[in-house]
Amino acid sequence: MKPVTKEQLAGLASLVGATREQEINCSECAVFAAEFAERQLAGLPLDETLAKVEDHLAVCPECREEMLLLRRVLESGN
What does each C-alpha distance from 61 to 1, 64, 65, 67 come to in angstroms? Predict the structure, then answer.
């Protein structure tokens, strides 16, 4: 097994530091993704649930990629 690099440890520490007491999972994030993207594009404030979506996106690259795709679709529809 290869030793862990300093960069990997720093990345892990960053993810741990970004965790919250009450988080949502990927499935829950997907439920609120469209509302989150629409509010974000419109510059509207996020409620508590949508703030949790934002927190999840900060630590989940898969959901973040899905959100980027959704935003592109929404932006192209305007």
Answer: 25, 5, 6, 10
User: 35: which residues sit within 8 A by CB, 6+ positions away?
Assistant: 50
Taking a C-beta distance cutoff of 8 angstroms, is the pair 73, 37 a contact?
no
Amino acid making up residue 14: S
Pull the structure tokens for residue 39: 């509010």
Annotate 6-45 with DSSP letters as a single string: HHHHHHHHHHHHH--SS---HHHHHHHHHHHHHHHHHTPP
pLDDT digits (tens, 9 = 90+) for 38-63: 999 999 999 999 999 999 999 899 99
Contact, 66 vs 33, CB < 8 A? Answer: yes
Q: What CA–CA distances, in Å, run from 49 to 14, 53, 73?
A: 22, 7, 23
